Amino acid sequence: MTSEILLRARELAPVLRERAPEIEANRTLPAEVVELLRGTGVFGMCYGPEWGGPGLTSMEQTEVVEALAYGDASAAWCAVIGANTGIYANFLDQTVAKEVFPRLDLVVAGLLQPAGRAERVPGGFRLSGRWSFGSGVKHADWVTSGAFIYDGGRPWAAPGSKHRHDSRQFLVPREQVEVIDNWDTTGLCGSGSCDYTMDGVFVPEEHTYTFATPQGRPGPLAQPDSFTRAMCGVPLGVARAALDHAREVATTRYDRMAGRSWADSWRVQTELARLEGEFNAVREGVYGAMRRQWAVLAAGGTLDDLTPTERVASPLSWLHAFRGSRTIVARTYDLLQTWSINRSSPMDRWLRDTTVLAQHLVAQDRILQSAGAYLLGSEPEFGISLGLV
């Protein structure tokens, strides 16, 4: 099953590459593209065998996402968002989760950061707010949203909570959410990462959850950082595509002023080699940290069994995957010079896609602060979501 999903993703990549201009112009994934992704099995790849799923490791998930991003970044981004449904299922009561997700190819989208307000009412909550960056929300089946909890209009925290104001995740059927069609961006245009709103939507208590309390089988994917890991496959897949494109161009171009082919150019040779080396280092940083973490967790250990250096390796590798891939694509763009600048060139889109990808939270200095603070015994800003507490 694992190899089949990866094979189907690789087979789909050329189709996604061909349809990339259409995906971008549509500003969300066309319905047919969503079904093509569904057909690969990517949306169910995080479900374990207890669900009848393939139970892909984080490394295998990332490879699948890389393969899809080689074709189109927006499609791959929506694929990894949708695939996280199987991870969210680990944090719901398992009976409820199997009622909510009767099939393994349903899609959950939404913003996990607590941007909404959830007022306690009998049996659950009334959820209101506006959330940004709902990637894939237009084709989602369910929407998960972070919100702070209020009781009688006042901020609420559970007894013994480390926080003065607790938040949770709230799972709502897509039809109860109003999507605001405002995704018009520099890059990653086809991801449909629109804002969305809710006003007093009732959410039963059993449809809420936190990443601090796994409800499913313990394991490497029942961790607060598990839904972030495979995201790195998107920038890595784009960078790989750009490098392969540059190599193809270099073998077909002739420099008339220098009187030699690009393949014989010292400038092209050295820059391509330099970029390949940087790509290999960035990619191995991701997979090396991931393999070590997975080995410890799969053996029944916890994140506390990792050394501090090993524990921060994962979030730091995510940051460098996003930032490093943007740099590799930008320098490849410069290497090809005027062969990059036309809209018909995939370099134009890859440059814009990686620029937008690098604005994601995992590529920001807050990650550096959290890792540095953890190493120094101080307070990480995003400790829980990065698995640093």
UniProtKB/TrEMBL annotation:
Entry annotated with the keyword Oxidoreductase: yes
Q: Which Pfam family name is an example for this entry?
A: Acyl-CoA_dh_2
- Domain Acyl-CoA dehydrogenase C-terminal, which positions? 232-364
Q: Which residue numbers delimit the Acyl-CoA dehydrogenase/oxidase N-terminal domain?
A: 16-92
Gene3D superfamilies for this protein: Acyl-CoA dehydrogenase/oxidase, N-terminal domain, Butyryl-CoA Dehydrogenase, subunit A, domain 2, Butyryl-CoA Dehydrogenase, subunit A, domain 3
Keyword annotations for this protein? Oxidoreductase
Designated name of the protein: Acyl-CoA dehydrogenase family protein
Q: Which organism is it from?
A: Kitasatospora saccharophila
